[in-house]
Amino acid sequence: MLAHSAARLFLVRHAETAHNARKVLRGKASANDPISGVGERQAAACAAALAALNLPDPKVYASRYRRAQQTAEPVARALGVSMNVLDGVQEMDTGNWNGRPYSDMERPASQIRHPDGTFGFEGGESVQMVAQRVRAALAEALAQGGTPIIVSHGLALQVMLGELLGVPFDEAWNDQRFAHRNTAISELVGEGGAWRAVSIGGAAHLDALR
Fold first, then answer.
1. Which of 22, 117, 177, 183 is the most buried (most CB within 10 A)?
2. CATH number assigned to the domain comprising residue 81
3. InterPro entries per the record (predicted)?
4. What's the pLDDT tens digit per position in 13-29?
5. Element of type H or E holding 175
6. Which helix (H) or strand (E) segment is 130 a member of?
7. Which residues on neighbouring strands pair with residue 195, listed in sequence order?
């Protein structure tokens, strides 16, 4: 459970990249991948949706990966604030799975195991490793107060939400309750030192793009 001073927290998956569209795992090699033309429209729609909420003292954060920053920049502009890079919320490294299709992950968590015994990828990271870095990153952002908006990545967000809501990763993976489309938004509120989900993976702002 992460202590917090913020009353609300927003988690956003980055906009689409060409490799997302092809549904291929890229791992660390994806760090400089830009968002696509579709992704630019998604990011603009996401920015408009967040601006419409009139959030008090918004603080916009993005992972150190290019696609997260390209998604967060229009959000920050729409809210009239700066975008901050938050190390530790970058995507899980998929190691030896790089180059494989997303469909290879459509299996129970028990069948995707890192050598440390938790969900993860040989040659890359495990949930245990990602959880350690996202906990530190979340603590850093939450300590700044205001209303944090963190732009991160699909697998990393699933780890984050499990940490914040106290849900075991394997359980959430098996029913995909924390899955996010590109630029989908999750909202959490802080109550009594704990976090409660208001919405997970909301994407109504993308309806007009279809």
1. 183
2. 3.40.50.1240
3. His_Pase_superF_clade-1, His_PPase_superfam, PGM_Phosphatase
4. 999 999 999 999 999 99
5. helix 169-175
6. helix 127-143
7. 190
